[in-house]
User: What shape does this take?
Amino acid sequence: MGDDANAANCGFASATPYTGKYSSVGVANASGTCTVTATMNASASPLITAKTIIMKWDANNGFVTQQSSTGGTVLPKFLPNSWK
Assistant: This one.
C-alpha cells in the first residue's frame, strides 16, 4: 500500500481482491483514506476463519493498524501487541 491516498487502488496493482493460502485481501480508497481488509479463509485457524484484519492510511494519521480503531474482528489475543 502506498502513502498516496489519491493513487488509484492506493498503490495496489488492482482493486480485485488478492487471494492467498490463509486470506483474501481487498483494497478500497474512499475520500482519501486507503483501507486494506484481510479476511481469513478456511485454511486459517478455525479460531479466526471469516474474521477480518483492517489497516487504514490517511494523510493525517499515517498507517493505523490498531484493530480497536479500524474495526477488525480478529480477537486481540491473536494479534501483535501493537495492533490491539
